[in-house]
Design goal:
By secondary structure, the chain is of the alpha/beta class. It has helices at residues 51-57, 61-64, 70-81, 91-104, 120-127, 135-141, 154-170, 186-197, 206-223, 228-231; strands at 2-10, 21-30, 33-34, 39-42, 85-88, 116-119. The longest helix has 18 residues, at 206-223.
C-alpha cells in the first residue's frame, strides 16, 4: 500500500483570488514504513506573498525568484503521486490550490490523478471532538516532538504528519522502536541496537553549504537583520 503525506505552502489563503503555491512537500510510506522517496520543490509563484503568509513560511519573493514555475514541475509531481493514497491535514485547503494550479495548465483535477484522499483533520475531529486539532496540537497530544519547527515548511510538515497519522491509526506515538534490553537473551537486543545504529549519514557538500549560506544571506537582506534560520 503506497501512501503519500502531502503539504503545501502558499502566498496567501485564497486560491480563487490568485494566491499561488510556493512549496510542495511529500513523504512516502509503503506498507506504513517510511521509504525516503520524498518529493520536495520550491516554486516561483510569480507574485509576492501576503505579509501574514510570509510570517508563517519565511519564503521571500527574492528567494523564490529563481525557482521553477509550477508548469515546469507539474508532470513530475503528478507522476510521483499517481495512484497513491494521498493524506493531507485540512485537505480542502491544499486541494483548492492544487486544482487551481492544474486548471491553469488544462489538467484535470488533482483527485483524478490519485487513488484516494484522506483528510487527517476529519479523522482527528472524530477522535478528539471539541479539542484543537491543528498539526501542532496533535503533535503535543500524541507526544511527537516538533520543537525544531519554528516556521512552517511543506516537507517538514509532511514528515510530522506521517508521525501523527501513524499514531492516530494504530496507537503508535513515534516512528522509532523501543527495545527491551532487560529481556532474557540480551544479545538479541544488543544486535537490534547495532542494526538501528547503522544509519547512513550524507553530509552536505561544500557547494551545498555555500549555496545554503547564500540563501541565508538573501533572507538576512530581506528582513534587514538576522533571519530566523540563523537564530535557531
Amino acid at each position: 500500500m503506497r501512501q503519500i503525506m502531502l503539504d503545501t505552502e502558499t502566498t496567501g489563503l485564497n486560491a480563487k483570488s490568485g494566491d499561488r503555491i510556493i512549496e510542495i512537500g511529500c513523504v512516502e510510506l509503503i506498507n506504513r514504513q517510511l521509504t525516503g522517496n520524498n518529493f520536495h520543490v520550491y516554486i516561483n509563484p510569480e507574485r509576492d506573498s501576503e505579509l501574514g503568509a510570509l510570517e508563517v513560511h519565511g519564503l521571500t519573493t527574492e528567494f523564490l525568484s529563481d525557482k521553477p514555475k509550477f508548469a515546469e514541475i507539474a508532470e513530475d509531481f503528478l507522476s510521483y503521486v499517481k495512484d497513491a493514497e494521498i493524506i493531507i491535514h485540512n485537505a480542502p485547503f491544499d486541494l483548492g490550490f492544487l486544482d487551481a494550479e492544474l486548471e491553469r495548465l488544462s489538467f484535470s483535477a488533482f483527485r483524478s490523478h490519485v487513488d484516494s484522499i484522506t483528510d487527517t483533520l476529519v479523522t482527528a475531529r472524530s477522535m478528539f471532538p471539541g479539542k484543537r486539532n491543528s498539526l501542532d496540537a496533535l503533535c503535543d497530544r500524541l507526544d511527537i516532538s516538533n520543537s525544531h519547527r519554528t516556521l512552517h515548511g511543506a516537507l517538514l510538515d509532511a514528515a510530522l504528519l506521517a508521525e501523527v497519522y501513524l499514531a492516530m491509526t494504530r496507537g503508535q506515538d513515534s516512528l522509532s522502536m523501543d527495545i527491551d534490553m532487560s529481556q532474557e537473551g540480551g544479545e538479541a537486543g544488543q544486535d537490534a541496537v547495532l542494526q538501528m545504529a547503522e544509519i547512513i549519514v550524507l553530509p552536505a557538500s561544500e557547494d551545498e553549504i555555500a549555496a545554503h549560506e547564500m540563501i541565508l544571506d538573501g533572507l538576512d537582506k530581506q528582513v534587514k537583520g538576522i533571519c530566523v534560520w540563523r537564530r535557531v
